[in-house]
Amino acid sequence: MSRASRLLTLLQMLRGKSRPVTAATLAAELEVSERTLYRDIAELTALGAPIYGEAGIGYVLRSGLFLPPLMLNPDETEAVVLGLRYVDQRGDEELSKAAADAMAKIAAVLAPAAQDALRNPTLLAGPAGYGFPDNLVSLNVFRQAIRHQAKLLIDYADVNQVPSQRLVWPLALGFLNEARVIITWCELRGDYRTFRTDRVAAALELDETYPGRRSDWLRGWRKRMQSEEAKRFTPDKK
């Protein structure tokens, strides 16, 4: 195993550990000496990896952005760039800025071999389309409520401009080609509902969280969508 490959493997091993792991254990898994392991840890730390260790306890990789120069090959670079450009085209002002900032951070740590894929990509995002309807409520209001897992009181008008007030549990924002939607659990309907953000006249985040975990509710929504999609393409046997 080359040194670069070993460093990558060591980093992935640490990412997969939720508790500190000793140098002896890491060295045994990599089939290297503890002295070599210490040098590898020192090199990853010098590159910016948030690795913390304590004698007799072991090493742990704490959360935080870390992209050493050897992390992305040209194909991976183009995939990331394509995704960020798609976000820049279809996201709101905050997301577009976040995409630009992420691009700059990635560019700063790319290996020379991958820099050309960044400057001259072979994959291009399609046209941005006809634009999105203006939102009366900033998408950041929805994002914050989703992150806080807070209930959201919205004033909504359907396609026929019929108004209603809904108490919803915000789960995720969806970015479609010609509209943005918020995926929710609606207390009024007692079921999953999707609302176009441009039809939300007002939104108030309440000081009340909804029960359970957002990930579980979102998983339930995905299952519902998959079930409805399967029904749509299942031939009628009658």
TrEMBL record:
Residues 139-202 form the WYL domain. Signal peptide: none annotated. Coiled coil: none annotated. Residues 6-59 form the Helix-turn-helix type domain. This is YafY family transcriptional regulator. It comes from the Bacteria. PANTHER family: PROTEIN PAFB, PTHR34580.
